[in-house]
Amino acid sequence: MTTPTPSDKAFVPFVSVDHMMQLIHHIGVPQMLRGLADYIEEDFRRWQLFDKTPRVASHSAEGVIELMPTSDGEVYGFKYVNGHPSNTAEGLQTVTAFGLLADVASGYPVLLSEMTMLTALRTAATSALVARVLAPEGATCMAMIGNGAQSEFQSLAMQAICGITEVRLFDIDPAATRKCAANLAGSGLNVVACGSAEEAILGAQIITTCTADKQYATILTDNMIGAGVHINAIGGDCPGKTELAPAILHRAEIFVEYPEQTRIEGEIQQLGDDHPVTEFWQVLSGDAPGRRSPEQITLFDSVGFAIEDFSALRYVRDNIRGTALFHPLDLLADPDDPRDLFGMLQRAKG
């Protein structure tokens, strides 16, 4: 049987969870993280070509459901994603997602994919891409505070892209730390389980915070942060949800994806709208400086942005070509005569 290719117009290639996992193992986790980072960097370097808008969010007491759209003028993409911190108590994922790419010229979808697994990878790849540019030179140790679903991906991305050799773990739930440490066994990382956030940050040049509770929390206090570290704050990602003491924000040089979204959802929601931030694409383009001195504290206030998902979907589209790692999905009506949709319906009666 000939494997259909994603360029065929009669169907939409659909990448299921199973096929996504097969694709990841086919490529290799470190290689895929590096590949995703390359695609994200490529799209950040052409940032001004993209349509940009804060994600469309529907908030509830339990969580949030969001749509994240963008287009570079030739390809349109969006992601559907939820964030429900209490889901784990019911045995459900905190975050689930799927995404779509479409051809702008015709409006036809060209890829439909699971994005729960893919979002975990692209989030980690983005963190490591930014850390590669902003973290202290020669950084080898990361503190990972919050050892949930994202922690292993963050650790492996920092290893593959930034060259860290040690990760220091802490979570208020010791079972989460044991889970993360077990999953990272054999990765080549020196994994240290810690009893507190203060212990975890000892000797770390990169500090990643990734907690799930939807509240104004203080995971890092001002006196915990010394000069020269890079903070990768990825847990504060919706209104009313933060992780850092405001005093840290006033000491740090803050880098963001898209200010209009980050001021609503990120750590900087604690600051005024006029507080200065630097867009990361400006650093890549040379329009703004990154780390300016060894003593500087840099902070990536990451909330996730649609262009990163667009990049990840592009990467999947390009890497499933020539494989059988997708299903031909009968998603689009395709009448013989484009004007005769009703006739197609009638003929289906048999």
TrEMBL record:
Cited NCBIfam families: PRK07589.1
Family matches, as InterPro entries: NAD(P)-bd_dom_sf, ODC_Mu_crystall, ODC_N
Coiled coil: none
Pfam families reported in the protein's UniProt record: OCD_Mu_crystall
Entry-linked Gene3D superfamilies: NAD(P)-binding Rossmann-like Domain (3.40.50.720), ornithine cyclodeaminase, domain 1 (3.30.1780.10)
Domain of life: Bacteria
Stated name of the protein: Ornithine cyclodeaminase
SUPFAM superfamilies: NAD(P)-binding Rossmann-fold domains
